[in-house]
Amino acid sequence: MRGLPLEPAERLRRALFPVQGKQFGWRIASVTVSLLSVALIALILGYRFRGAELPPLLLLALLFTFATVVVLLSKFLFWAQEEEGQFQGAFKTTEREFESVFETALDTILILDDQGICREANPAAEQLFGVRRRDLIGESLDRFSRDSGQFREVWNLLLAQRFHQGDAEFVNHERAPVFVEFTAKADCLPGQHVMILRDVTERRRTQISLIESEERFQQMARNIQEIFWMIDAETKKALFVNTAYETITGRSCQSLHDDPTSYEDLIHSEDRVHVLAKLDEATRSGNFNEKFRILCAQGVIRWLWVRGFPVRDAAGKILRLVGTALEITAQKEAEEQVVANLALAKSAWAEAEALRKATLSLTQDLQMNLVMDALLKSLEELVPYTCARVLIPEGGPHILALGERTCPPPEKKSSKFPLAFMADESSFFYRVLTEQKSILIADTKTEEKWSTFKGHKHLRSWLSAPLVASGEYLGCLSIGHVQPNIYTQDHLRRAELLAIPAAGAIQNARLYETARIYGEALESRLNSLKKAETALAQSEDSRRSTEEKFQKVFRSSPIPFSITTLKEGRFVDVNAAFELRYGYTRAEVLGHTVHELGIWDDPKDRELMLAHLSRGGPIRNIMTRLRMKSGELKVTAYSADRIQFEGESCILAVSEDLPEINPQTSN
Question: Global pTM?
Answer without folding.
Answer: 0.32
